[in-house]
Design brief:
With about 375 residues, this protein is α/β, with parallel strands linked by helices. Helix content is about 40%, strand content about 20%. It has a six-stranded parallel sheet. Strands 1-2-3-4 form a four-stranded antiparallel sheet. A three-stranded mixed sheet has the order 12-5-13. Strand 8, helix 9 and strand 9 form a beta-alpha-beta unit. The chain is globular and about 60 Å long.
């Protein structure tokens, strides 16, 4: 892809006069389209490349915090950049205090709604601010939040998409061997039960039955079909059923949760802690996961993790493993880290799994550092 100029919103001279040390000086946003080692093939579509919006927030004094969000569709990138431009007008010159910034952004966005692209852009800024604060303190994010560095158990989610069943066993072996994983994620939801059963059998033939196998339907089933299919798969010893229904079908999930033996996992498409609370109160899930782009960044994660912890619901991440390696260490009901390497092409020294575990580096911040040569290579 050809290089593209970043979009930057610096402080004005008037801001410079008033800006206290550590306040937000500027916000810079860029977009890249990175190649995937294995294409994503699911009910939501096929993706051979993955769009990322990179955000850098500079504080007065020169500290720069960095973060990224992944809006799935490259066509969505301009909208995310436009929202970041809007929010920058609110932010520049203000103290770099994530909780205060989040409250201010939610007030500013209330009239247009605080889900969708608005939350995605706000989450990117929130994560960059936490990265900046950790760097300014000279601490990894987990220590800034009061936790300690250490291993987080992970499952490999880098493959086992809905493609040729004959290749699943080989791919499962490769995924298990990449970092000594004892758990993998398989995507299901074929038109015929026989094809889902064949996919499960192929994976187990490749890696045996000792590995935990999570399955994800990517919202691919209707209400009656979800109940029937999940009942038919209930005897397969699967770790969880993830998102068989549309993500916001509260009543449908409550019915499934009451009638299935295999635990239900959902949450990656929920916006903020209140959305999660609704599903917890309705007893519509057994496990939950948060996507940093939608849950509200680090600030939103902390709130959602408190909800899950108080309810006794085990909480995992969706994507963003570099940051989740910090956050799961301070999550009361921490469960699994979802390992994907989709942002690794543009990161310096991305984490590497070992013995099925991910450990944050210990460097100040949250382990999001750009490989600028790669960013230029994949710029859009």
């Amino acid at each position: 892809m050809s290089d593209a100029s970043p979009v930057e919103w610096p402080q004005t001279r008037a801001h410079a006069i008033r800006t206290p040390p550590g306040a937000i000086r500027s916000l810079r946003a860029r977009a890249v389209l990175v190649p995937l080692r294995r294409p994503v093939i699911a009910a939501i579509g096929r993706f051979d490349r993955w769009p990322l919006v990179l955000v850098d927030v500079e504080l007065a004094g020169g500290v720069v915090g960095s973060a990224y969000v992944a809006p799935y569709r490259a066509a969505s990138v301009p909208a995310v950049l436009a929202e970041l431009s809007d929010l920058a007008e609110v932010l520049v010159g203000r103290p770099a205090a994530p909780f205060d910034v989040e409250a201010g952004l939610m007030r500013a966005l209330n009239v247009v709604g605080v889900a969708g692209l608005t939350t995605i852009a706000a989450a990117a800024i929130d994560m960059a601010l936490w990265d900046a604060r950790a760097k300014a303190a000279g601490l990894p994010l987990v220590e800034l939040l009061g936790g300690t560095l250490g291993p987080v158990r992970a499952y490999n989610s880098n493959g086992l998409w809905r493609h040729e069943i004959g290749s699943l066993g080989r791919e499962a072996r490769e995924l298990a061997d990449e970092g000594g994983f004892s758990a993998l994620k398989l995507r299901l939801g074929a038109e015929r039960l026989a094809d889902d059963l064949a996919a499960i059998a192929a994976v187990r033939e490749g890696v045996g039955r000792d590995l935990d196998l999570m399955v994800d339907f990517n919202q691919g089933l209707g209400g009656g079909d979800a109940l029937r299919r999940c009942h038919e798969l209930d005897e397969q010893g699967l770790y969880w059923f993830e998102e068989p229904l549309a993500y916001d079908d509260l009543r449908g999930y409550a019915e499934l949760a009451a009638r299935l033996r295999t635990p239900l996992q959902l949450g990656e498409n929920l916006y903020g802690a209140r959305d999660l609370m609704r599903f917890v109160e309705a007893r519509a899930l057994h496990y939950a996961m948060g996507d940093l782009m939608r849950i509200g960044g680090v600030t939103g994660w902390l709130r959602a993790a408190a909800v899950a912890g108080a309810a006794g619901v085990q909480f995992s991440n969706h994507l963003y493993p570099e940051i989740a390696a910090h956050l799961l260490r301070v999550t009361p009901s921490a469960h699994w880290l979802e390992w994907v390497d989709w942002a690794s092409p543009i990161l310096l020294d991305p984490p590497v799994p070992s013995q099925g575990r991910i450990v944050a580096s210990g460097l100040p911040g949250m382990d999001v550092r750009w490989d600028e040569a790669a960013v230029r290579r994949y710029a859009i």
